[in-house]
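Fig. S4 source data, part A: sequence.
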Amino acid sequence: MNNFRKRIITGTIFIAAILGSIWWGPLSFQVLFFIAALCSLQEFYKLVKSDKLKPNFVLGFLIGAISYLLISISAFTDEHLNKLVLLAPLIMLIFIAELYRKKENPFGNIGYTILGIFYIIIPFALLSQMAAHQGNYDRGILFGYFFLVWSSDSFAYVFGNLFGKHKLFERISPKKSWEGVIGGGISTLGIAYLLSIYQPQIGLTDWLMLAIIIVITGILGDLIESLLKRSLGVKDSGTILPGHGGFLDRFDALFLSVPFVWAYISYFVNN
């Protein structure tokens, strides 16, 4: 099977799993993204691990799982984010544990262990907060978010291949072009307009603003993940998704865009 066919099959299953879990209800998508978050965290720790750098897998996984559960479950309760005060002492445990690990470069180990939690786990968990529209589960917001992310990425790829001449950030990602970004951005604004018609719980202005946020932060998220891989000398973050690389490769736009989208929805849509 050639790589293009693998990419199509994997992409179809990937999209169907996400949309299906969102449609089914809050528990199903929380479980799916809980698994995706931990797989992404494992991939990240494995990627950065070296002879001199050894993040704390066990404690990172434990605190990452607790962080996800606290943030995601609180989205649909009256407690909201109050229990997140528990995360502060949990994070401090990573510092304490390093005293007893007797590993080289202890603060590098601490830094990358914490980085994995903030860079990967928190954005996944905030998807639940995004979906809590005025206290209720709103699958339309999640559908809209992913449609905007995928349209930005897909149209940027198409326009970049057809018209790309001016490099966006050649030092980090030689294939990305300004033509791709502009074409993807305009197309995503068009998708936002359609979403305002079929998902009117958010107005046109807000959908357009979300589209702009997603286009900008999605591209930056892609570049940041490319910077990580380039600094480590690897092409793909993993091989678990045939034709698509690893979890970090597929969710790179999500890691940076979700916190910004959640902040906008919290302050300008839900209030």
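Fig. S4 source data, part B ends here. Residues 3-269 form one domain.
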